[in-house]
């Protein structure tokens, strides 16, 4: 069962350098043919590029462990990105901070209660401006219901 006391736990800030080559690799991997991602020196990152932050997040920067979801019953339920201006361009240095925003339960349709955990990651540029926010939701399903003979 997830730990509701994890709400508010914040990881240490870490840095994500938005690099032209990484933007191009990500764009190609996702099937983009947009020249803004592939050809410009100041390439614009695709909207879901910020997913790559998981490659840069340090153990100290990741508060997810505090949630204590059972990974044998865990699922990635949702990922959302909110931008407060244009997506970051190549050459931008972002400071990222993740925190556990919520832990809650809902009754499932087949087999009991489900526990949801929500982690947000804020991305600030070099001036301290909030550029984007990623919201990731994980879910722990209830143990399968026993069948009657």
Features of the shown structure:
149 residues; mainly beta; Thiol Ester Dehydrase, Chain A; 5-stranded antiparallel beta sheet; 9% helix; elongated; disordered C terminus; HotDog_dom_sf; MaoC family dehydratase N-terminal domain-containing protein
What's the CATH H-level homologous superfamily? Hotdog Thioesterase
Overall pLDDT level: 90
The CATH C-level class name:
Alpha Beta
Low-confidence stretches: 144-149
Q: How does the helix and strand content classify structurally?
A: mainly beta
Q: How would you sum up the global shape?
A: elongated
Please provide the ordered H/E string of secondary-structure elements: EHHEEEE
Q: What level of helicity do the residues show?
A: under 10%
Question: Biggest β-sheet: count, sense, barrel?
Answer: 5 strands, antiparallel
Protein name: MaoC family dehydratase N-terminal domain-containing protein
Pfam families: FAS1_DH_region
Domain FAS1-like dehydratase: 6-132
Structure overview:
It holds the Pfam family FAS1_DH_region. This is MaoC family dehydratase N-terminal domain-containing protein. InterPro entries: FAS1-like_DH_region, HotDog_dom_sf. Residues 6-132 form the FAS1-like dehydratase domain. It comes from Speluncibacter jeojiensis. The protein is 9% helix and 35% strand. The chain has 149 residues and is mainly β. The chain has a single domain (4-140), classed as Hotdog Thioesterase (Thiol Ester Dehydrase, Chain A). The chain has a five-stranded antiparallel β-sheet, with no helix packed on it. The longest helix has 10 residues, at 20-29. The model is unreliable at 144-149 (pLDDT under 50).
């Amino acid at each position: 069962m997830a730990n509701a006391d994890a709400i508010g736990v914040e990881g240490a800030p870490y840095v994500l350098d938005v690099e032209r080559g990484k933007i191009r690799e990500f764009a190609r991997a996702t099937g983009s043919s947009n020249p803004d991602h592939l050809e410009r020196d100041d390439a614009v990152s695709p909207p879901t590029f910020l997913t790559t932050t998981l490659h840069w997040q340090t153990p100290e920067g990741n508060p997810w462990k505090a949630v204590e979801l059972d990974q044998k019953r865990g699922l990635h339920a949702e990922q959302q990105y909110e931008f407060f201006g244009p997506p970051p361009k190549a050459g931008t240095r972002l400071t990222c901070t993740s925190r556990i925003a919520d832990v809650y339960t809902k009754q499932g349709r087949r087999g009991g209660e489900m526990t949801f955990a929500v982690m947000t990651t804020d991305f600030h540029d070099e001036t301290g401006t909030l550029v984007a926010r990623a919201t990731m939701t994980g879910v722990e399903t209830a143990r399968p219901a026993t069948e009657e003979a």
